[in-house]
Amino acid sequence: MSSHNMARDETIADVGTGATESTGLLRDRSESSNGERRQDEGEAWVGYADFEGLPWWKRPSVWFLLVPYALFTLAFGGTVVPKLNLILELVCKRYFADRSARDPDYTFTPVVPGGDNDQCFIPEVQRSVATFMMVLNVLTGLLSALTAPKLGSLSDRYGRKLMLTVCALGGIMNEIITILAAKFPDTIHYNWLILGALFDGLTGSFTAGSVLIHSYTSDCTPPSKRGVAIGYLHSCLFMGLAFGPLLAGYFAEWTGSLLSIFYVTLGCHIFWVFSMLFVTPESLSKKRQLLAREKYEVEKAARRPPTVATRVGESGLRAMLGQKIDGVVYLMKNQNPFAPLKILVPKGAHNARLRRNFLILAFLDMVLLGAAMSGGTVIILYTEYMFGWRNLESSRFVSLVSMVRVVVLLGIFPVINYVFRTRKAARLRRESSAPIVEKNNGADEFDIWILRSAILSDVVGVIGYAVVRDPAIFVGCAIITAFGGLGSATIQAALSKHVPAERVGQLLGGIGLLHSLARIGAPILFNGIYAATVSSYPQAFFVVLAGLFTATFIASLMLKPGVYMTEDDAEPVEVVPTTPGEQDALEDDELLPRVS
């Protein structure tokens, strides 16, 4: 493996077409009537061959995902604030009940479901809620770290639809338990919500669902248009986060019950399962699934190394002991959970710059994801504690920030991308006498500067969180941080440009492991800090977060453009699988690229 520098003006485009990632998908839909037309227009891609000749409703496409995914994200976004406030009510009710049981003379205002409940906004209750949320998030993150890679591997052999359905089943069980705990709070302790988190984590949670959706999109979208397709999915996600809390807040006000939101969310999960089973076509053909299974069986048979028993003899006590020792050694070798990260540290002095870029981008990705997944909960708790906000105000806040992020991603960023990248690419295509070949040549200057700008907006906004005490100015700081939403999308694109196309799945598999670790560590850090300091200095969380973002900005200054792993020099990265399922995922990276 080696790293190289590329000229700043080098453009990535389709073979023989000059199509770039900025190419729209609308043309795809209108031209999907037959595979021959694609080839006639220079849009040849091997992925089309598996479904050539099928009617449009049997050919996989990102368009089949948009409606169910939009409803899925609406449900996900709509329950962020209500579920937090529901847990706050349940914990608060138990807190005062337990205190009254210890002190019969103690009097308190009863907790009204869906009411203002000002008595709950005290440091003791806030500390208990933050700790309980930390337990739920860590449990879900830990279990999804174990199950998400397995679901990704199984989806290579048995199809994406089945695994996407499995992910939704955990959400259904989680919502049912939440509804029961909210409807019968005196009978069902709020600790039963841990069981819901258990089901959610065992089925991969929202993280595995998103990863499998990206895998589905990669199966049926050519590389030059894959970024646009995933951009449509991201827009659905942020629009769900924008409108979900707002609609949920008004719906709760209209019905007068916080519980009604969870019934709607349960219905959205059921609709997702119905869509996956009966509407959405499978993105992996039976031929590719069977080929993946056969390859897995062949490699599994040849995977086991020579045994100790073979070396010491085939009979007697020594042979039996040798077999036992070999089993233990083999198990230890194959239970390294960090083996997928090996691709991030390629060997050789000539790969020093590549290693640095990999490690920096992985660090940035972990911080940004951890802050997004776990920091939001603490921010909502903080605003309700400091400003007296309730469910509707918190929902409006989350919706506003998410809507600004949607505008940035779908409005401002495409314009900037067109001015600084697309126009230059079009000019180079006009001036070039030969087709420009699409390949991964590392992140360019534009990627790096967009990333730095996004992180800088996070730094400024979070520092504002820590120093302001006025709710209007706090909202202004949140709008500034919304521009940081460009960071995660840019990092994912930049990482994929550092490796050949056949290694993108392997690279993103390692990044997926880091995502799971971030979901475990971030709640412990953020919720733990808030729980420990809410009564003395509740802004301590923002100080720590600002320090992390500052460190990421400094690290981004060391990124170098044009550093990449070449196809000719890339050596196979020997990754020890943690399970047979992960072994299959690594074996099939070149055949069936995936993200896990």
TrEMBL record:
Spans traversing the lipid bilayer:
62-81, 129-149, 161-184, 190-216, 228-252, 258-279, 358-382, 402-420, 473-495, 507-531, 537-559
Picking any one GO molecular function of the record gives: transmembrane transporter activity
Sorted alphabetically, which keywords does the UniProt record give? Membrane, Transmembrane, Transmembrane helix
Main location as per UniProt: membrane
**What InterPro entries does this protein's entry cite?**
MFS, MFS_dom, MFS_trans_sf
For membrane topology, the record states: Multi-pass membrane protein
Where does this protein have compositionally biased stretches of type Basic and acidic residues? 1-11, 26-39
What protein am I looking at? Major facilitator superfamily domain-containing protein
Q: Which organism is it from?
A: Cercophora samala
Q: Mind giving the lineage of the organism this protein is from?
A: Eukaryota, Fungi, Dikarya, Ascomycota, Pezizomycotina
